[in-house]
């Protein structure tokens, strides 16, 4: 089994190939054949649904490499915790990456909802906004509230941090795996501008 550090190195190297325009992933029938009976991805990614941030592509990984959960705003709700738990318990994954990104539409929608409380989005969209809200709300009480771009930048990071925290403490299963040193949860941010994924230490 790959260690968490080895898994992170593989992701970082893949992202570097992607940034350099040297992606090496080609998917063949032979690989599909090898994967029909089983899978054993080496990392779990909780990312945003944004069409510009497909996890396999930005990390230059192939079929069977990543167990990916994508949801607008890379939020953590019970079904996301369940998906991560399932993968962590079933496969040799030592790392979970919460992958947020610059210019996230879900974060922007949350800022808008907080600024215009009378124009509430649909209840379905509100279920996402409400999960992002705590990360944004605290920033709205600082000087950042007057600088939309800066506010969004900080809110994206604070939302990534919130999801990392929620996964770390989201369930007894996750806490036990982390306690036993079998799993780490890290945050990362994809830059729409450069394609680079920056990993955070928190
Ligand atoms: Zn997004």
What does this molecule look like?
With 202 residues, this protein is an alpha/beta fold. 49% of the residues lie in helices and 13% in strands. The protein has eight helices and five strands; from the N terminus they run ααβαβαβααααββ. It has helices at residues 4-19, 29-34, 55-58, 78-90, 105-115, 123-140, 148-169, 172-179, and strands at 43-47, 66-70, 95-101, 184-190, 197-199. α5 (105-115) packs across α6 and α6 packs across α7 (148-169). The longest helix is centred in the last third of the chain and has 22 residues, at 148-169. The site of zinc ion (ZN) has 7 residues, from α5.
**Helix count, per DSSP?**
8
Calculate the terminal CA-CA distance, rounded to whole Å.
24 Å
- What is the 3D shape? globular
What share of the residues lie within helices?
A: 40-55%
Poorly predicted ranges (pLDDT <50, ≥5 residues)?
none
Structural class: alpha/beta
Main β-sheet, spatial strand arrangement: 2-1-3-4-5
Associated small molecules: zinc ion
What's the pLDDT, averaged over the residues? Answer: 95
Task: Report the count of strand segments.
Answer: 5
Give the SSE string. HHEHEHEHHHHEE
Q: What's the story with the biggest beta sheet?
A: 5 strands, mixed
């Amino acid at each position: 089994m790959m260690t968490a550090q080895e898994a992170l190195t593989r992701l970082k190297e893949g992202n570097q190939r992607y940034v350099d325009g040297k992606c090496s992933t080609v998917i063949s029938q032979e690989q599909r054949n090898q994967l029909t009976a089983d899978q054993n991805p080496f990392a779990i990614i909780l990312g945003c649904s944004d069409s510009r941030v497909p996890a396999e592509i930005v990390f230059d990984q192939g079929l069977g490499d990543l167990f990916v959960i994508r949801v607008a705003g890379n939020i953590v709700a019970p079904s996301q915790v369940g998906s991560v738990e399932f993968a962590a318990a079933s496969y040799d994954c030592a790392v979970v990456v919460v992958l947020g990104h610059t210019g996230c539409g879900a974060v922007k929608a949350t800022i808008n909802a907080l600024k215009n409380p009378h124009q509430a989005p649909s209840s379905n969209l509100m279920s996402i906004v409400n999960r992002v809200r705590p990360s944004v709300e605290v920033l709205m009480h600082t000087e950042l509230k007057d600088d939309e771009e800066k506010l969004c930048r900080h809110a994206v990071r604070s939302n990534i941090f919130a999801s990392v925290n929620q996964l770390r403490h989201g369930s007894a299963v996750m806490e036990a795996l982390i306690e036993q040193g079998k799993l780490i949860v890290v945050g990362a941010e994809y830059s729409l501008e450069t394609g680079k994924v920056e990993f955070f230490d928190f």
